[in-house]
């Protein structure tokens, strides 16, 4: 391994992100990981320049904007078996895709049950009602961090609540996007920059992109990052749709439920194995966010999760 590193200078390890140790490492190693993640690793000047151009266009006279990581994409929906708010034809298309991809082990999935367990990405309608319930006005500028949204009427339901919706394809010109079009990872890099620089980042489903952005935002000073409690939220929205609760009650419950899910400092939770605990790159605290003693951390209460989060982690 040493000889390979000397020869190539950089070695890429694939499929190792969930197997890396998150805790129990020397502080010097953890700080090195942060310096590598957030300082040494940089995008090419072309990506950085266009990414910041999109940010400046969104700001438009210093206006704030929300970056919404909306994972309502065809492959994600097929993989998770989620088809809420879709037509029966679209749901069948997703099922066919799931069976065609041989390395996806889970084939028969109850979409309704998966959604009630919090295992589905928020639909565009659910995401719109979530933002509205959290108090964001219809005039809010929103950038969609995602690939192509699946479903014939999916984005229409979102735009009916929030018309000021943008993406890299609507903010950039054809000429600006031409060098990036053939490379999905380069388009994703543009989205990453816009998400990182946003005033508020909301992610509607866990994934590598969401974890990387939230970790980076924590490193940059715990920028506001909202992590919706999907399991509790879908039950609330179903009650709203059934007429069991009023909009005022729904909005109040959503705000209370997420009062401690806004990206405030909290120590990373250890688990039985790296696969069952919070990733270091999603929450680099403790490790390299700040240089506080354990006594200071305890005195500030940062070693304790808020009650709602502790209860969820114990389920």
Describe the structure.
The chain contains 16 helices and 5 strands. It is mainly alpha-helical and 315 residues long. The protein has a 5-stranded parallel β-sheet with strand order 3-2-1-4-5. α4 (74-80) crosses α5, α11 (184-197) packs parallel to α12 (208-219) and α13 (230-241) runs antiparallel to α14. The longest helix is centred in the first third of the chain and has 15 residues, at 45-59. Residues 303-315 have low confidence and may be disordered.
Task: Summarize, please.
The radius of gyration is 20 Å and the shape is globular. Helices cover 47% and strands 6% of the residues. It contains 16 helices and five strands.
The biggest beta sheet reads: 5 strands, parallel
Major sheet strand order: 3-2-1-4-5
Number of strands: 5
Tally of helical runs? 16
State the share of residues found in helices, binned by percent: 40-55%
Low-confidence stretches: 303-315
Mean pLDDT, all residues: 88
Globally, the shape reads: globular
Order of helices and strands: HHHEHHHHEHEHHHEHEHHHH
The assembly state of the depicted protein chains is: single chain
The radius of gyration is 20 Å
Could you give the topology of this structure?
Blueprint: H1 2-8, H2 27-40, H3 45-59, E1 65-69, H4 74-80, H5 88-100, H6 111-116, H7 124-133, E2 141-145, H8 154-159, E3 165-166, H9 168-171, H10 174-177, H11 184-197, E4 200-203, H12 208-219, E5 225-226, H13 230-241, H14 247-257, H15 294-299, H16 307-313
Parallel strand pairs: 1-2, 1-4, 2-3, 4-5
Helix pairs in contact: 3-11, 4-5, 11-12, 13-14
């Amino acid at each position: 391994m040493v000889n390979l590193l000397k020869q190539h200078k950089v070695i890429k390890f694939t499929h190792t992100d969930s197997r890396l140790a998150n805790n129990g490492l020397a502080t010097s190693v953890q700080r090195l990981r942060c310096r590598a993640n957030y300082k040494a690793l940089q995008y090419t000047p072309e990506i950085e320049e266009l990414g910041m151009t999109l940010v400046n266009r969104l700001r438009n006279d210093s206006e704030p904007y929300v970056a919404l990581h909306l994972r309502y994409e065809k492959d994600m929906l097929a993989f998770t078996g989620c088809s809420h708010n879709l037509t029966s034809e679209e749901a069948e298309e997703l099922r066919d895709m799931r069976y065609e991809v041989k390395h996806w082990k889970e084939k028969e999935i109850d979409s309704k049950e998966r959604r009630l367990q919090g295992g589905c990405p928020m639909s565009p309608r659910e995401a719109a009602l979530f933002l509205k319930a959290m108090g964001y006005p219809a005039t809010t500028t929103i950038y969609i961090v995602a690939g192509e949204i699946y479903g014939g009427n999916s984005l229409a339901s979102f735009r009916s609540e929030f018309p000021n919706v943008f993406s890299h394809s609507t903010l950039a010109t054809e000429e600006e996007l031409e060098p990036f079009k053939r490379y999905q990872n380069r388009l994703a890099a543009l989205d990453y920059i816009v998400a990182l620089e946003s005033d508020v980042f909301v992610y509607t489903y866990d994934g590598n992109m969401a974890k990387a952005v939230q970790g980076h935002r924590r490193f940059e000073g715990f920028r506001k990052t909202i992590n919706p409690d999907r399991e509790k939220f879908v039950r609330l929205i179903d009650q709203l749709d059934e007429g069991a609760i009023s909009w005022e009650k729904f909005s109040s419950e959503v705000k209370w439920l997420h009062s401690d899910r806004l990206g405030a400092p909290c120590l990373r939770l250890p688990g039985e194995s790296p696969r069952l605990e919070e990733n270091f790159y999603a929450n680099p605290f403790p490790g390299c966010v700040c240089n506080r003693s354990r006594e200071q951390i305890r005195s500030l209460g940062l070693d304790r999760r808020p009650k709602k989060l502790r209860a969820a982690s114990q389920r």
